[in-house]
Amino acid sequence: MRIVLLGPPGAGKGTQAALIAAQKHAAHVASGDLFRKHLGEGTELGKLAKTFMDRGELVPDDVTISMVLDRIGEADAADGYVLDGFPRTMDQAKALDEALAVKGQAIDLTPLVEVDTEELMRRLVGRWICRSCQTPYHEISAPPKVTGVCDVCGGELYQRDDDKPEVVRARFETYERQTAPLIEYYEGQGKLVRVNGQRDVEEVTASLLQAVSERSAA
Ligand code: AP5
Asked: Is residue 160 part of a domain?
């Protein structure tokens, strides 16, 4: 299955995409993680991306599209993937559809994880992330067993520069302006499923897995 997980910043896309991908033996492809990996490696792409990320703006489509299309062409994504954070503009969505159509493929399902703005802000300002494996934690709702250390790989936890409240507000605006129109786009393709993201992680995962099963059976 090829899944696009939609939702505003902090909705839990990264958390859920990792769980769904593991359950379905699919690749988890997160555009934000790819940019942060480049940043950590000090590449030119990483430096360019940071200038946009720090302002809560989107990285330009041309570099983003080629980065993600290259990634989903890798062997571990051959049998399916969960896209997290991509596409985020109409041009990205159309480029993805066109690239897949060339291979006789298409996106199967686009769940939209819905959470209200107050809760999104609470989640983002309390988030900590593993520098090595990108697993997200929350200082109140999902703390690591040992403060500052990743449960999964033992890596160091850090807070993202773009999780400062003023940058989060800019990210919400960017989402409404550039990404929310994708909801109608995928609704028009009959692929959108709305999921209440304002519940326990396990409940959200169960709803997402149910949507995947229903689509597989259809
Ligand atoms: P990106 O990294 O994609 O950020 P985002 O979309 O803003 O999403 P987040 O990672 O902030 O949140 P999430 O929905 O994954 O939530 P999470 O699971 O972590 O993008 C960053 C930047 O990169 C962009 O601003 C842009 O500049 C650039 N970029 C990326 N993709 C791009 C693209 N396609 N085009 C152009 N530019 C691009 O959860 C958040 C917190 O909540 C965590 O602490 C978690 O533990 C907690 N939590 C999760 N679920 C629950 C729950 N059910 N209950 C309580 N707490 C929960």
From this structure: no
Q: Are 16 and 142 in contact (CB under 8 A)?
A: no
pLDDT digits (tens, 9 = 90+) for 106-122: 999 999 999 999 999 99
Catalytic amino acids?
A: 13, 88, 127, 160, 171
Domain with 12 in it: 2-116+180-217
Give, to the nearest 10 degrees, the angle between helix 31-41 and helix 61-72.
Answer: 100
Exposure b/e, 86-107, CB count within 10 A at least 16 = b: bbbbeebbebbeeeeeeeeeeb
Within-domain flag for 156: no
With a 6 Å cutoff on the Cβ, whether 172 touches ligand 1 is no
- The total number of structural domains in the chain stands at 1
Helical H segments across 25-102, by residue range: 31-41, 44-53, 61-72, 90-102
137 belongs to a structural domain: no
Over range 158-173, report the average pLDDT.
95
pLDDT tens sequence across 18-67: 999 999 999 999 999 999 999 999 999 999 999 999 999 999 999 999 99
Residue 140 lies in a domain: no
CATH number, domain at 95? 3.40.50.300
Ligand 1 proximity of 3 Cβ (cutoff 6 Å): no
130 CB under 6 A from ligand 1?
no
Kindly report whether the global pTM for this prediction surpasses the value 0.70. Answer: yes
